Amino acid sequence: MNQDDYPNDHSFPTHPHAEAVTEQHEPVTENAWSKLNAFTDARVGLGRSGISVPTKHLLAFQLAHAQAIDAVHTQLDSAGLAAQLTAQDWAKDWTKHCAPLLLHSRATDRATYLQRPDYGRRLDEESADTLDEHRASTSQQYDLAIVVVDGLSSLAIEQNTLPFLQALAGYLNGWSLAPICFVEQGRVAIGDDVCERLNAKCVLVLVGERPGLSSPDSLGLYLTWGGKVGLTDAYRNCISNVRPAGLVYQEAARKAFYLLNEARTLKLSGVKLKDRSDDDLIIDTSKESKNFLIS
Amino acid sequence: MSKPHSTFQRNTFQFRNIVGERTFGFVDLADLMAKATPARSGDRLAGVAADSAEERAIAQMTLADVPLSLFLEQALVPYEADEITRLILDDHDKAAFAVISHLTVGGFRDWLLSDLATSEVLTQIRPGVTPEMAAAVSKIMRNQDLILVAKKCHVKTAFRNTIGLPGHLSTRLQPNHPTDDLTGIAASMLDGLLYANGDAVIGINPATDNVQQATRLIRMMDEVIQHYDIPTQSCVLTHVTNTIECIDQGAPVDLVFQSIGGTQATNDSFGFNLANLAEAQDAALSLNRGTVGNNVMYFETGQGSALSANAHHGLDQQTCEARAYAVARKFNPLLVNTVVGFIGPEYLYDGKEITRAGLEDHFCGKLLGLPMGCDVCYTNHAEADQNDMDNLLTLLGVAGCTFVMGIPGSDDIMLNYQTTSFHDALYARRALGLKPAPEFDLWLAKMEIFKNNEQFTLNHQLPDAFHKSLNRMIGGLS
Predict the structure, then answer these.
(1) Mean pLDDT value across residues B349-359
(2) Residue B46 has pLDDT above 70, yes or no
(3) Which of B28, B185, B376, B414 has the most beta carbons within 10 angstroms of its beta carbon?
(4) How would residue B6 be classed by pLDDT, with cut points 50, 70 and 90?
């Protein structure tokens, strides 16, 4: 169609199924397909002011971005979180022998952390000393070290750590647990540094994942059998997107324990350890119906 | 990164520059190139960046005096060890190079900006320009130089429509979904098409990356393209070896995707080599699915990938990136996309570094003859926001960028980053008068998506053709 067909907006024919003809009267044109947002988290059907994003959606986006930025830049209160953990009844077994250990990576601040991933993978000297002293102080052999790391979202750690650990606690009878470690300005691989210094058999790292616009609070779980400095991702198993709106705590704990148990049996982790915790779920895509656009 | 800030042995300097009382030395061409590179975090992380602003400026002056012909004599990555170096040097066209063979890097900048370098002449010299020459000259060009010269470089490609005509800008419709849910993907596709996006390609990054899933998504997009008779092409961004299997199993593949890097070791880490790409290109060509052309490859690149794979050979990240374009141009791609802000702040720290990198990549790609697009994007841990994206999108639009991404509301809910939205593409069209691919433009009019193609005005009614399926899905439209 070209302009000549319809000399001006007011002569535009009304369609029997038309969305409300708002363009002439209202600056914002709503989209007839905006209800599709019930089927996806994607920002579909936002409508438009001219061809631009309407004010309310512009501001909603900015809020989501602001929350994601804050998740990256807000410092983790690891002392406060450790105190909360110590106060939990279900955590008594984990904290009665040794209070949580508060550690720090070699990245002194967030700007350094963001530009030097290598610093975030190693403990600073004081933290290394703390672990070495603890190791020298006891003859206890540890099956598992749990290491809580701020990563790229302190929000993820603050919101999800306690409920996830509570869900996991029920599975860990009979496991000898190292003191829980909290690490600031850390990346996933710093768990290997901790694991090696504590001489634990394996390490489970809880880390704040890179925040998405709609998910600033996503927790990641990384398991390494025999963690030691220098291992690559090929030696790790990952469970991602742990949060109330993603993989819920009970499910995450079930999957984590499946992997922990397999790792202990096979004495390995990473690409050779397959997550078959969902093998009883069968998805038959051959019977999938056509998408609605062509139905 | 095994050895950040590793120190080089500086016993001998290939290049020296005496300024006042001080002598600045540069070990070799790679060292000179790295130190001449505008500042960015990835080069600091690699330990190859200039130590001071002064050293960088001196390096740029020193680089400006280097003859272009030196890049043919001194490979930055050893010929014997790297198939991309071999590709660059073996395919070099001496006749095409003759026009510029007498120039230094500095003289090349003057020549590119001069009226001697018309669009026709720039097309003729392409096979004589190596990625290293393009990278070198870009390092001493300002942003406006990168824009002005890129705008003169015309690169036209085609499959079911014609991409890259002057005065045009295409968009990749990117309907990603975190679980590859077909309804969710279809919702984003519909949104994009009704916002006049999708002429470069409808391209999905699969959440589950295997042959079965890729085939499912390829079929889904093919059905939609056929049902609405859309003059565009589809692509699932899965590994090249997966796509070859999809083709073997009869999947309706339009474009073959692969992420590529500028050193053989980078591509080893990606799990492919040049022979795999050649095999995939042959397989896609054998399907003969293009209607107006047969450019069947879609490549993605991005500064920092070589360093990330610990495969950078001591080169700066922009030079590695330009070398990836040698890989791309070997296979006549329909589209090449530099995903500029995706990799994170350890490679490009903030909006300023992302902007510079985007313009460099677009310029180098175009100079080398590629249909260069840009994923104008950032992650939430980079120092960047929507305003930085607006700036880069506008600059690239002025520079004649081939295509950008289009996604609902800038929010990729699968890859967790922000890229340009469907609305953003329409902004660039209106602000700069840039039209979609001509075949797609006609389709937009025919479908009554555009009310006025010249003014980029959208219909305020839901076009007829989409009404039935949408009504069945959500009801209550009447």
Answers:
(1) 98
(2) yes
(3) B376
(4) very low
Chain A residues 196-255 with CB within 8 Å of chain B: 210-216
Name which CATH class applies to B157-457: alpha beta
Backbone angles phi, psi at B411, to 5 degrees: -110, 105
Q: What is the nearest CA distance from A281 to chain B, expressed in angstroms?
A: 15
Query: Which residue carries 């390995």 as its tokens?
Result: A268
pLDDT, greater one: B183 or A19: B183
Question: What residues contact A135, with CB distance under 8 A and at least 6 apart?
Answer: A197, A198, A199
d(CA B374, CA B396): 8
Closest CA to B318 of B357, B346, B355: B357
Q: Which chain A residue has the Cα nearest residue B456?
A: A51
Question: How far is residue B453 from each of residues A156, B49, B165, B448, measured CA to CA in Å?
Answer: 46, 47, 16, 10
CATH number where A182 lies: 3.40.50.11240
Burial class of B183 by CB neighbour count within 10 A (0 to 12, 13 to 18, 19+): middle
CB-based contacts of B130, cutoff 8 Å, min separation 6: B71, B72, B88, B89, B92, B326
Q: Which residue has the tokens 């939609």?
A: B224
What is the rounded distance in angstroms from the CA atom of residue B272 to the CA atom of residue B60? 35
Which residue type, as a one-letter code, is found at position B447?
M
pTM comes to 0.91
For residue A278, being part of any structural domain is answered with: no
Give me the amino acid identity at B267: N
Residue A123 lies in a domain: yes
Which DSSP string do the residues of B265-286 spell out, in sequence order?
HHHHHHT--HHHHHHHHHHHHH
Chain B residues touching A1 at Cβ < 8 A: 445-446, 448, 451
Q: Is B119 annotated as a binding residue?
A: no
Residues A179 and A63 in one domain: no
- Does B418 contact A291 at a Cβ distance shorter than 8 Å? no
- Cβ count within 10 A of residue A18: 17
d(CA B292, CA A251): 51
pLDDT in tens, B68-101: 999 999 999 999 999 999 999 999 999 999 999 9
B307-343 pLDDT, tens digit per residue, is 999 999 999 999 999 999 999 999 999 999 999 999 9
